[in-house]
Amino acid sequence: MYEPKLWQDHVTQYEDRYTESRNDDGTITHTPVEGEIIQQGTPQNAANFNHMEDGISNAGELAALMAVGAIHQQQSLKDLAGETMTVTMTNTQEYPFNNSVKTVSLPQRRNHVDYTVTAEVVEYSGGFPGEIIISAKLQNGFKVAFAGSAKSVTVKLYVKGGFY
Fold first, then answer.
1. Within 10 A of 117 (CB to CB), how many other CB atoms are there?
2. 16 burial level (CB within 10 Å; 0-12, 13-18, 19+)
3. What is the mean pLDDT of each run of 10 residues along the chain (164 residues)?
4. How far apart (Å, rounded) are the C-alpha atoms in residues 53 and 49?
5. Which pTM does this prediction carry?
6. CB hemisphere CA count around 136 (13 angstroms)
7. Residue by residue, what is the 3-state secondary structure of 41-90?
């Protein structure tokens, strides 16, 4: 775990005071004249700066991990959200034959076909609906049919998942 370093300014009796001496090569050397040291400052050295760099790096990594976690959470929530639609199927054949298969387009294309479709019979006429069959799932739709003797069946379909 990163522990912050509290930096302190170097405070002296005389700020920005120097003595000047001339060198043999014609250059000038300025030597600080601090006077009394009122507060010893934190050294500006590789150990202290690298400590700070490690903390910045760790914070960046943690932020990236948290962003990935948030993205996964949003994906999970989106997969829990569902869509509903109502579909009416008709059968023009006599029982036990049935031609009620209907193709249903999904309002929102899925990323894969691992989504669930639940059907609730809302209304039927001309016989009994029997089993509701979901088949041929694709990313943009699926097929729905009923297996009974009814001439018309209306179902409410609940589609959930398939995004992540």
1. 21
2. exposed
3. 92 94 96 95 96 94 96 87 94 96 95 95 98 98 98 97 88
4. 6
5. 0.60
6. 11
7. CCCCCHHHHHHHHHHHHHHHHHHHHHHHHHHHHHHHHHHHCEEEEEEEEE
